[in-house]
Amino acid sequence: xxEPTFGMDTxxxxxxxxxxxxxxxxxxxxxxxDFGLSEDAEEHSFNELYFNLGVHRKFINAFLAxxxxxxxxxxxxxxxxxxxxxxxDLIERSxxxxxxxxxxxxxxxxxxxxxxxxxRNQFTQAGLVYIEYFYLIMYLVIFINLKNAFIAGR
Length: 154
What we know:
By secondary structure, the chain is α+β, with helices and mostly antiparallel strands.
Protein backbone atom coordinates (compact mmCIF):
# COMPACT_ATOMS: atom_id res chain seq x y z
CA UNK A 1 0.00 0.00 0.00
CA UNK A 2 1.18 3.50 -0.72
CA GLU A 3 -0.41 5.03 2.36
CA PRO A 4 0.96 4.45 5.88
CA THR A 5 -2.59 4.14 7.24
CA PHE A 6 -4.82 1.84 5.24
CA GLY A 7 -7.92 -0.07 6.17
CA MET A 8 -9.24 2.70 8.42
CA ASP A 9 -12.46 4.58 8.06
CA THR A 10 -11.68 8.17 7.12
CA UNK A 11 -14.39 9.45 9.49
CA UNK A 12 -13.07 7.66 12.59
CA UNK A 13 -12.99 9.75 15.76
CA UNK A 14 -9.45 9.60 17.09
CA UNK A 15 -9.83 11.75 20.20
CA UNK A 16 -6.42 12.41 21.76
CA UNK A 17 -4.64 9.90 19.52
CA UNK A 18 -3.08 10.22 16.09
CA UNK A 19 -2.72 7.12 13.91
CA UNK A 20 0.81 6.76 12.51
CA UNK A 21 0.59 3.42 10.73
CA UNK A 22 -1.55 0.37 10.22
CA UNK A 23 -0.39 -3.11 9.26
CA UNK A 24 -1.34 -6.77 9.35
CA UNK A 25 0.51 -9.52 11.17
CA UNK A 26 0.17 -13.24 11.89
CA UNK A 27 0.55 -14.87 15.27
CA UNK A 28 0.65 -18.54 16.16
CA UNK A 29 -1.88 -18.98 18.96
CA UNK A 30 -2.04 -22.29 20.84
CA UNK A 31 -5.61 -23.07 21.88
CA UNK A 32 -6.83 -25.71 24.29
CA UNK A 33 -9.67 -26.61 21.90
CA ASP A 34 -9.40 -28.38 18.57
CA PHE A 35 -12.26 -26.56 16.78
CA GLY A 36 -13.51 -29.99 15.66
CA LEU A 37 -10.44 -30.60 13.47
CA SER A 38 -8.50 -33.23 15.40
CA GLU A 39 -8.34 -35.23 18.61
CA ASP A 40 -5.22 -33.68 20.16
CA ALA A 41 -5.59 -29.92 20.80
CA GLU A 42 -2.21 -29.41 22.51
CA GLU A 43 -0.28 -30.21 19.33
CA HIS A 44 -1.93 -27.50 17.26
CA SER A 45 -1.37 -23.81 17.10
CA PHE A 46 -3.51 -21.76 14.80
CA ASN A 47 -2.47 -18.71 12.82
CA GLU A 48 -4.51 -15.61 13.50
CA LEU A 49 -4.52 -12.47 11.41
CA TYR A 50 -4.14 -9.26 13.42
CA PHE A 51 -4.84 -5.72 12.31
CA ASN A 52 -2.37 -3.45 14.13
CA LEU A 53 -2.50 0.28 14.77
CA GLY A 54 0.54 2.39 15.51
CA VAL A 55 -0.65 5.46 17.41
CA HIS A 56 0.80 8.30 19.43
CA ARG A 57 -0.90 10.69 21.80
CA LYS A 58 -1.34 14.33 20.95
CA PHE A 59 0.86 16.00 23.55
CA ILE A 60 -0.62 19.48 23.40
CA ASN A 61 -4.08 18.33 24.56
CA ALA A 62 -2.74 16.61 27.67
CA PHE A 63 -0.44 19.56 28.34
CA LEU A 64 -3.24 22.12 28.12
CA ALA A 65 -5.70 20.04 30.12
CA UNK A 66 -3.37 19.14 32.99
CA UNK A 67 -0.28 21.33 33.26
CA UNK A 68 -1.52 24.80 32.33
CA UNK A 69 -4.02 24.91 35.25
CA UNK A 70 -1.23 23.80 37.58
CA UNK A 71 0.99 26.56 36.23
CA UNK A 72 -1.77 29.14 36.86
CA UNK A 73 -2.24 27.82 40.40
CA UNK A 74 1.52 28.05 40.95
CA UNK A 75 1.43 31.70 39.88
CA UNK A 76 -1.46 32.35 42.28
CA UNK A 77 0.47 30.71 45.10
CA UNK A 78 3.48 32.85 44.30
CA UNK A 79 1.34 35.99 44.30
CA UNK A 80 -0.12 34.98 47.67
CA UNK A 81 3.39 34.35 48.95
CA UNK A 82 4.38 37.90 48.01
CA UNK A 83 1.71 39.30 50.32
CA UNK A 84 3.13 37.48 53.34
CA UNK A 85 5.29 39.70 55.50
CA UNK A 86 6.27 40.22 59.10
CA UNK A 87 6.83 43.97 58.72
CA UNK A 88 3.99 46.21 59.84
CA ASP A 89 4.23 48.75 56.99
CA LEU A 90 4.11 46.00 54.34
CA ILE A 91 1.22 44.28 56.13
CA GLU A 92 -0.80 47.49 56.03
CA ARG A 93 -0.11 47.92 52.31
CA SER A 94 -0.92 44.36 51.29
CA UNK A 95 -3.68 43.70 53.82
CA UNK A 96 -2.09 40.42 54.89
CA UNK A 97 -3.54 38.40 57.72
CA UNK A 98 -3.30 34.71 58.48
CA UNK A 99 -7.01 33.96 58.16
CA UNK A 100 -7.13 35.36 54.60
CA UNK A 101 -4.03 33.34 53.71
CA UNK A 102 -5.60 30.14 55.09
CA UNK A 103 -8.78 30.82 53.10
CA UNK A 104 -6.82 31.39 49.90
CA UNK A 105 -4.63 28.32 50.37
CA UNK A 106 -7.59 26.09 51.19
CA UNK A 107 -9.44 27.27 48.06
CA UNK A 108 -6.40 26.55 45.92
CA UNK A 109 -5.97 23.19 47.65
CA UNK A 110 -9.49 22.08 46.73
CA UNK A 111 -9.03 23.22 43.12
CA UNK A 112 -5.87 21.12 42.86
CA UNK A 113 -7.55 18.22 44.64
CA UNK A 114 -10.43 18.18 42.15
CA UNK A 115 -8.02 18.31 39.21
CA UNK A 116 -5.99 15.49 40.77
CA UNK A 117 -9.11 13.35 41.17
CA UNK A 118 -9.92 13.94 37.50
CA UNK A 119 -6.45 12.70 36.51
CA ARG A 120 -6.82 9.65 38.79
CA ASN A 121 -10.14 8.81 37.10
CA GLN A 122 -8.36 8.67 33.74
CA PHE A 123 -5.77 6.18 35.05
CA THR A 124 -7.77 3.97 37.38
CA GLN A 125 -5.69 0.81 36.91
CA ALA A 126 -2.27 2.45 37.06
CA GLY A 127 -0.25 3.21 40.15
CA LEU A 128 1.30 6.63 40.53
CA VAL A 129 1.36 8.27 37.10
CA TYR A 130 4.14 10.69 36.12
CA ILE A 131 1.82 13.70 35.89
CA GLU A 132 0.67 13.13 39.49
CA TYR A 133 4.09 14.22 40.74
CA PHE A 134 3.16 17.77 39.75
CA TYR A 135 0.06 17.58 41.93
CA LEU A 136 2.04 16.17 44.85
CA ILE A 137 4.57 18.99 44.47
CA MET A 138 1.72 21.52 44.51
CA TYR A 139 0.38 20.01 47.76
CA LEU A 140 3.84 20.40 49.25
CA VAL A 141 4.12 24.00 48.03
CA ILE A 142 0.74 24.84 49.58
CA PHE A 143 1.84 23.35 52.90
CA ILE A 144 5.14 25.25 52.86
CA ASN A 145 3.43 28.53 51.95
CA LEU A 146 0.84 28.03 54.67
CA LYS A 147 3.55 27.34 57.22
CA ASN A 148 5.34 30.49 56.05
CA ALA A 149 2.12 32.51 56.52
CA PHE A 150 1.73 31.23 60.09
CA ILE A 151 5.34 32.03 60.92
CA ALA A 152 5.10 35.53 59.44
CA GLY A 153 1.77 36.20 61.17
CA ARG A 154 3.25 35.88 64.65
